[in-house]
Request: fold
Amino acid sequence: MPYTLDQLNAMAEADFVAAIGPAFEETPAIAAQVWPLRPFISVADLHQHMVAVVKTMPSADQLALINAHPDLGTRVAMAASSVSEQSEAGLNSLTSEEYHQFQALNQQYKDKFGFPFILAVAGHTKLSILKNFVDRLCNSTDAEMSTALSEIEKIALSRLNSWVVSA
Reply:
C-alpha cells in the first residue's frame, strides 16, 4: 500500500478485495461486488460504485455493516484503520473520566438504537464527538440508521483516498 488506480484496475479479484475490502469495515463482499465493474476512472468513481452496493443491500446486511464498527473510544482490538482514525481524534488518550463517559454514551446509544454509534472522526475532537453523541441520541432509529450509513460512506472514502494514489 498505497496503490495506484491502474494497479487496482489490473488486479485479480482476490488481490483487489484484499487491497480495498477493508474500506467498508469487515465487509469485503462490497469490494468483491464492484470488482467486475473495473476499470474505475477515479477513487470517487470506485467509491460511488461501492456506495451503490451498500444502498442496495438488504436492511439486515446494512445493519451487519453498521454492527461491524467498533465503539468509539473503546479499548478492544479493532481494525488498523479504525485504530488510526480514532487515534487522530485523540480517542486513544482518553482520561479515565472521558473513557467512562464514552462507554456510558456508547451503551446508551446501543440500548436505544440497537447498533453502535458511527461517526467519521476525521477532523473531530473528543469534545465534538461527545456533542455528536448527545445530539444524535435525540434522533429516531430510522434517522440514525441513515446517518450511520452516511458516516460509513465518509469513512470508506477517507480510507480509499489514503490507499489509492494518482498514477
Summary: Residues 141-163 form the longest helix (23 residues). The chain has nine helices and two strands. The mean pLDDT is 90.
